[in-house]
Amino acid sequence: MRTLTIDSATEACSVALFDESTLLASDFRVLGRGHAEQLVPMIAALPGKGRAARIAVALGPGSFTGLRVGLAAARALGLAWQAEVVGYPSMALIAAMARAQKGAKPIGVIMTGGHGEWFVQSFAANGMATGEVASLSPVAAAALVDAELLVGTQSAALAALRGHGDVLELLPDARGFSLLSAELLTSNIQPHYGRAPDARLPAGAK
After folding, report:
1. Distance CA 134, CA 161 (A)
2. Over the stretch 165-191, which tens digit does the pLDDT of each residue have?
3. Distance from the first to the final alpha carbon of the chain
4. How far is CA 20 from the centre of its chain?
5. How confident is the model at residue 129 (pLDDT cuts 50, 70, 90)?
6. Confidence at 196, pLDDT banded by 50, 70, 90
7. What is the pTM of this model?
8. Are strands 166-168 and 149-151 parallel, antiparallel or unpaired?
9. What are the angstrom distances between the C-alpha of 142 and each of 2, 99, 109, 134, 156?
């Protein structure tokens, strides 16, 4: 079965086409902004324009815009192709990518959040999360994460705060999808922003 993987939850934007666990083609770009303009052409450039029986999409946490762009593309292609659409947690993908490089050991994933906070989540040596994603101040994150292997965009900053840590700066990459355990996939493709939205409707509005 072919799987198209879409990851636009962070400043990175990536797509990958797999035949079972074999990577057929991919594209990875660090954009910062512009995911909406780049994502569809990236998919269209894949063999067969990326058409697959299954579509896997990152659920976050991450940027509001990036997550919405990825989910909208996955849902639209799923309808057009009559394909199964599944989601996966972004922090677990980063942890899986780190395990592939560093081996089976406890991991703390630390990613840039909003308003000066960081998204943090800890993983056991078997790759499974030991707690939920939290959005914390840098000081609170340093107090919470006790793993020696620190992974993600804020891993070096957290190691500096703690005064120790093996650092691996990674962004989520759709090419790492085959590293994920199947039990982490879900048909409930709702975005996980990691924190409450900045804007709120006025009182009484619906």
Report:
1. 18
2. 999 999 999 999 999 999 999 999 999
3. 42
4. 20
5. very high
6. low
7. 0.92
8. parallel
9. 40, 21, 11, 12, 11
Phi, psi of 8 (to 5 degrees): -135, 30
What pLDDT score was predicted for residue 195? Answer: 63
* Both structure tokens of 92: 């677990």
Residue with tokens 């990577």: 23
- In Å, how far are 63, 87, 190 from 197, measured between CA atoms? 10, 21, 15
Query: What Å distances lie between residue 42 and 65, 77, 100, 175, 193, CA to CA?
Result: 17, 14, 25, 14, 24
* 85 pLDDT more than 50: yes
Residue with tokens 């982490």: 184
Residue 71 phi/psi, 5-degree rounding, is: -65, -40
Residues 55 and 6: beta-carbon distance below 8 Å: yes
**Size (the chain), residues:** 206
SS (H, E, C) the chain: CEEEEEECCCCEEEEEEEECCEEEEEEEEECCCCHHHHHHHHHHCCHHHHCCCEEEEECCCCCHHHHHHHHHHHHHHHHHHCCEEEEECHHHHHHHHHHHHHCCCCEEEEEECCCCCEEEEEECCCCCECCCCEEECHHHHHHHCCCCEEECCCHHHHHHHHCCCEEECCCCCHHHHHHCCHHHCECCCCCCCCCCCCCCCCCCCC
Closest alpha carbon to 130 in 120, 143, 115, 138? 120
